[in-house]
Structure prediction request, 191 residues.
Amino acid sequence: YKRVFVTSSAYLGWLSGLPGADSKCQERANAANLSGPMIIDGYDSYGAPYGHYNITYKAWLSSGTVSAATRLTHSTNPYKLVDGTTVVASSRNDLVTAKISSYDVYGSPIYDKWLTNPISKTEGGGVVSGPVWTNTQPNGYMTTTANLYTCYDWAGSSSGYIGYSDRILHDWTAFSLQSCGLPARLYCFEQ
Prediction:
């Protein structure tokens, strides 16, 4: 399975772009020992090791030009919270496909349920509720290409699209706009 979490830290909308957001996910995963041991590539001039991790994480985040659907790997394995048992989606296809959430008064299905369980656990296993930077529709593609609504591709001010970490309907990733000067968390997906 692939692990997914919402960051325990919240960040302003200027994330240093998509690479900065991915770096924040990796930092949180490393701090919680979700990345496996570091593979040492060498040593700096002070003798401290540097390297990389076998298990990497990326933010479920789209810019005005790149969608989460194309940035993140597509797994056929289940996505689970860090507890290893709580299923968010049975596969990448399940993650981005609407399911029946209820029925209307005529008995017709309403397709609005996206997640099996909300992505509300942090990298350390704590439960949080609140806004999460995304600019991503439930299908994984960007909500908008306008810089004005992506915190200028996550490197400036204005506003950005958010989801909500305690939701399983479309609003888990596509809730509303929020000022880039207000904090929000990130969803992080194991690659």
